[in-house]
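Why this split exists: single-chain examples teach little about how molecules sit against one another. For that reason, every record in the complexes split bundles all components of an assembly together and asks for one structure covering all of them. Below is a record exactly as it appears in the raw files.
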Amino acid sequence: MTSYRHHPDRIAALVQDDRVHRDLYLSEEIFALEQEHLFANTWVYLGHASQVPEPGDFVAQEIAGRPLLMVRQPDGAVHVLYNRCAHKGTQLVTDECGNTGRFFRCPYHAWTYKLDGAPLGVPLKNGYEGTQLKACESGQGLSVVRHVKVYRDFVFVRLAGTGPSFEDYFGEVLGAIDNMVDRSPEDKLTVGGGVLRNIVHCNWKMYLENINDTVHPMSTHESATKAAEALWEGHAPSDPKPMAMEQILPFGSGYEFFDKMGGRVFANGHSVLGVNFSIHSNYAQLPEYEAAMRAAHGEERATEILQRSPQNSVFYPSLSVKGSPQAIRVIRPLAANRTLVEAWSFRAAGAPALLFERALSYNRLVFSPMSVVAHDDVHLFESIQQGLRAGGNEWVSLHRNFDVAELGQSTLTTNGTNELLMRNQFRAWAKSMLAGMEAAA
Amino acid sequence: MSSDPRDFAAHEAALLDERRFDDWLALFTEDGHYWVPLLGAAQADPFSHNSLAYEDRLLLQLRVDRLKSPRAHSQHPPSHSQHVLQPSRIEEETNDAVHLRTPFLYIEARGESQILLTGTARHHLVRTPTGWAIRQKRIDLLNAARALPAIQLFI
Ligand code: FES
Ligand SMILES: [Fe+2]
């Protein structure tokens, strides 16, 4: 296998205009370089501020192999620290979340730190007199992630010291988070109901591509949708459906449906699928909720918010948002062939309980390890991961609706089955991988 | 099957392990549910917190029907399960209902891979003219909230 480290030209050559090379998915070296470069140069979703409501609350989360801590400060701010004692490197906490009180105390030799990471105390202090401790890194307290953005309570980090600002990086796709938060008449979301965690034995990019793949549902999900259709047969289209049926049946829509739903791509790999309508568009109306929305946002704005229910909005490279069922998926790569996918549900303040039930139900039906819909997806991702090892053809096709005119464009609106949404991800992949690398090489 | 409800869990698990899913589904009452809480034994209800699965008969029927489809891609090759049960104990009993507690190991094998889950099954059974029926089967996994691979059949 080719070596990629110190060869940015070889990395660039993996992404062609209309196809990508299999090493993107298979190579452990590429994965290591992604951890070092791509996930440092981009803005990666860490967590939601509602996970740390009180001062001292923390969430431990690894990003790109680095253990991090999201911590609520006494003044209400959210800070992100490296979960690494300044002394010898012990992780300050090993619970995935909790409350540390007014300071962190390392379990190994009891060095203490303020909630913002500043050094507080060291036992047997005398032994450090006359040493260099104060002047060197170990005496400065916990390392801090400097580039943190809390956008409407969604917390993102950029690990690299230099790079695009949060607003420049995401641009217009931030409208998808706005839409999700605006669905609360009180402009507030809180994480609720726990997180469903899946281990999928495939490369993370394959999972993220599939979030934009509208050609697969007809064939991939046939077993689940045909079974659902058969069970629902005989009901008039206007019959109220149980929530599960309301959520599963649209997966069986035809090619034309997915083509017409439309898609939009943005610079840096982001996209919105379902700009015209989506599988979430026909959930039952809730008159009281809509009245609350009109009262909060005004007639026009409320209609605009509620009419917009894209299938998926991708915040490349780590987050996928579903505004209508108030659910997100977070992609946490573990190895070239192993990905952790989390599905979180949200409560919208001021909205009826039914909205939260929809989020729970959707995540459970579609993104649980026991999902009735995702088993076929997951099987196929794992099958691709194996299949790509075959010789003969080393390339993965992204030709569908390719048009040379799309090259160099940042924002484009297109039909829903255009593989542009995936090509756009890989173009961004190359850009973020190589940023800083060429200069260093 | 004997009328001693403590024999029920073993009978039910055997139907699953033999892939007799229609016979298994017929054990549920019309309002019966299959529930795998995300917090395991610590979870109070299926509504305030999410679950790995919380399914009524309609959804269970959908699963069973899906498994029969030749286009259930994830069942090429098919999964097989093995329940290893400790003897069931009666937790609560009234005239026409009983709550069983059955610690288990569950192994699901497919191709080269095998997953192992463990926990306690809790059956809420009701007496019917034809024998015991399941009003709820609740699976409290030992570590339900950890990241899991796909679980394809029924624990
Ligand atoms: S490693 Fe933390 S105090 Fe020694
Ligand atoms: Fe899918």
